[in-house]
């Protein structure tokens, strides 16, 4: 099946599940989930080398969600890939549930590391990548890749740039960072909070190879990841240009994006979002053969 077609359906299904999860559990960050949904769909729709039936497979690629507050998106992606039952998603953010608001690895197949304290994920990923370079090259797990998905807001943190220096110093070419560059953080816009531009030049000056792409164009994302994977001698970063709340028009609206960093969709807003996502799913599959609850290969 065509890669781009499958991952677009994956992305819509992921958004549908995340919308229901955050609404039912009363959690936030749906705008953050939606901005990286296409990135997660490309990764879990086939780019990452993983085995849902064998979550701890030694040769698997390691994925770290540094922007851990978007955990609902990773949970939905893992369930759609078959790491655990879709029914688990219904418990998200509720008392006693395994699936917490920030992504957690405790008891959840497919999650490598609990995150949510921004600025730490790249350090963890760099450590994993360094360990991989020191493995016996004849071992099965000697060629795995490490991918870390960061928010643009956490690039304000000094720890992020310490990790970037560390990774370049050690030539960690199995490490790929993706920055979900949606331009909105917490209570304001990135350019007003802590200006990042010239962003690409900063990464290059730290010794990284930079790949820039539209984070909602699945073919462009895959091409950027493939180019990063092929590069040798230094780590790579993909600057994925995204839109906060992508997929639901009123969340995407510039005047509303900051609001949807924390807001929970309920009532009329929930129904409106459901209608837009259902229409998007129908446009991709007019015959309704792949509903949101179906596993995506």
Description of the molecule:
This protein has 297 residues and is of the alpha/beta class. The chain has one domain: Rossmann fold (3-Layer(aba) Sandwich). 41% of the residues lie in helices and 11% in strands. The protein has helices spanning 3-25, 30-47, 71-81, 121-133, 158-169, 190-193, 199-205, 218-230, 249-252, 267-284, and strands at residues 62-65, 146-151, 175-181, 184-185, 188-189, 209-214, 236-241. Strands 1-2-3-7-6 form a five-stranded parallel β-sheet, sandwiched between helices. A two-stranded antiparallel ribbon has the order 4-5. Helix 1 runs antiparallel to helix 2, helix 1 (3-25) crosses helix 3 and helix 2 runs parallel beside helix 3 (71-81). The longest helix is centred in the first third of the chain and has 23 residues, at 3-25. It is globular and about 50 Å long. The model is unreliable at 1-5 (pLDDT under 50).
Sketch the topology as an H/E string, one letter per element. HHEHHEHEEEHHEHEHH
Please identify which CATH superfamily we are dealing with: Thiamin diphosphate (ThDP)-binding fold, Pyr/PP domains
Fraction of residues in β-strands: 5-15%
| Uncertain parts | 1-5
Taken from the alpha-carbon principal axes, the silhouette is globular
Q: How would you characterize the largest beta sheet?
A: 5 strands, parallel
- From the N-terminal CA to the C-terminal CA, the straight-line distance is 10 Å
Second rung of CATH, namely the architecture: 3-Layer(aba) Sandwich
């Amino acid at each position: 099946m065509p890669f781009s077609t499958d991952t677009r359906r994956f992305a819509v299904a992921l958004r549908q599940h995340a919308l229901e999860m955050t609404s039912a559990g009363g959690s936030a960050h749906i705008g953050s989930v939606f901005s990286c949904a296409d990135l997660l769909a490309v990764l879990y729709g086939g780019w990452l080398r993983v085995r849902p039936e064998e979550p701890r497979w030694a040769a698997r690629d390691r994925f770290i969600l540094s922007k851990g507050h978007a955990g609902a998106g990773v949970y939905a992606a893992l369930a759609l890939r078959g790491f655990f039952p879709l029914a688990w998603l219904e418990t998200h953010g509720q008392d006693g549930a395994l699936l917490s608001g920030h992504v957690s690895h405790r008891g959840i197949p497919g999650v490598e590391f609990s995150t949510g304290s921004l600025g730490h994920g790249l350090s963890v990923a760099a450590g994993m990548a360094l360990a991989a370079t020191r493995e016996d090259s004849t071992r099965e797990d000697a060629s795995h890749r490490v991918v870390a998905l960061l928010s643009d807001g956490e690039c304000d943190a000094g720890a992020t740039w310490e990790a970037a220096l560390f990774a370049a110093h050690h030539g960690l070419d199995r490490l790929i960072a993706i920055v979900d560059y949606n331009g909105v953080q917490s209570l304001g816009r990135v350019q007003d909070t802590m200006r990042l531009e010239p962003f690409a030049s900063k990464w290059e000056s730290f010794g990284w190879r930079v790949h820039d792409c539209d984070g909602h164009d699945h073919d462009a994302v895959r091409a950027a990841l493939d180019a990063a994977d092929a590069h040798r001698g230094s780590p790579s970063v993909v600057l994925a240009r995204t839109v906060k709340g992508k997929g639901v028009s009123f969340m995407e609206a510039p005047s509303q994006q900051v609001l949807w960093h924390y807001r929970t969709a309920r009532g009329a807003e929930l129904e409106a979002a459901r209608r837009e996502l259902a229409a998007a799913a129908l446009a991709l599959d007019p015959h309704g053969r792949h509903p949101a609850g179906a596993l995506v290969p």
